[in-house]
Amino acid sequence: MKIKRTITSLLTAAMLATVLAGCQNTGEASKAQSTNDEQNSQATVTETTAPPDLYSDIDDMISKMTVEEKVGQLFYVNCRGNDMSDAINKYHIGGVLLFGVDFDGKTKEEVNADIKAMQSNAKIPLIIGTDEEGGTVVRASDTFDNGGWSAIEDDAYDKAEFLLSLGVNVNMAPVCDITSDPYSFMYYRSFSSDAASTSRFVDTVVKASKEKKLGTVLKHFPGYGDNGDTHYSSATDNRTFSDLQNNDFLPFQAGIAAGADSILVSHVTVNSIDSGNPASLSEPVHEVIRDKLKFDGVVMTDDLDMFAVDALDIYEPLSVVAKAGNDFLCCGDIENEYTALLNAVQSGEITADRIDESVKRILIWKRNLAIL
Fold this sequence. Notes:
Blueprint: H1 2-48, H2 56-63, H3 67-73, E1 75-78, H4 85-91, E2 95-98, H5 108-121, E3 127-130, H6 140-166, E4 170-171, H7 195-212, E5 215-221, E6 236-237, H8 241-258, E7 262-265, E8 269-270, H9 283-292, E9 298-301, H10 307-310, H11 319-324, E10 329-331, H12 334-346, H13 352-368
Parallel strand pairs: 1-2, 1-10, 2-3, 3-4, 4-5, 5-7, 6-8, 7-9
Helix pairs in contact: 3-12, 3-13, 6-7, 7-8
């Protein structure tokens, strides 16, 4: 009897221990499941949360602009000694390009005052650019010969500091063109006939300028080569696309990788890409820039008053230029060109989305230069 009670007690204790252990395991399992559910929930939140929109403020700004203001932002107007107040106030232009005449006979303080006056008239801060290439006046290759790559870098820093002190925020450089013909138009503006050396030059100038927050423009895409001057005549390039890819594109790709802000497209007709239009007006050329070179910055035209384009009589309407994919239109005749583009937008020939796309790139550039 005593033995039976003892066995019964042992069995009861064993059953109780099993029940307690089961409860403990169930609690731990529940806790583990709860932790797993929490982690899965957090993972789900992480996967589905959209990254912050870096340009939401730019989008908001564009949404509040009138169509007239948006169209005006696409114009980069030659100053050439003219009073720019009408162009700034009436046409809402995006930028002003200064030439030698805008500096001749003036002190640094006078130039700075001129630029400040232009900026004070602008509702949206202006791109103020000039050509300081280091070409025909002071060849960059001469700078290299006298001091190597460190001299090129020092020269780029010095140019950036000087231009910024004037109020200029964009240098229309570096020249990416490669030519070996001493009689060609671009010879005295190009750094070298060698793609690798030119690429290193471009990389050095872009990085030094970017560090100082001076804008840069890679030019003249897709590469002038040994072709003639489109200021005064038409020019046709018969090189193969493979030749361009393996040689002329390389300095542009180096500049893009270094963080260049803009690419300027030439008026040379490149038969291997588009035999029917100058590069600046060619949609296939712009597709190469966007799709093959993966450039998402501002694409601008060379001066639309140059012979190679002016002779085509394309300003009625100017939509041909915008439709090709250009964001920034370099010109002198702002009244007629602005009116033509505005009419094309208002008639629906160019969509509002297409204009917004370019305006956004221009405003992002201005913010990157710390002027917006």
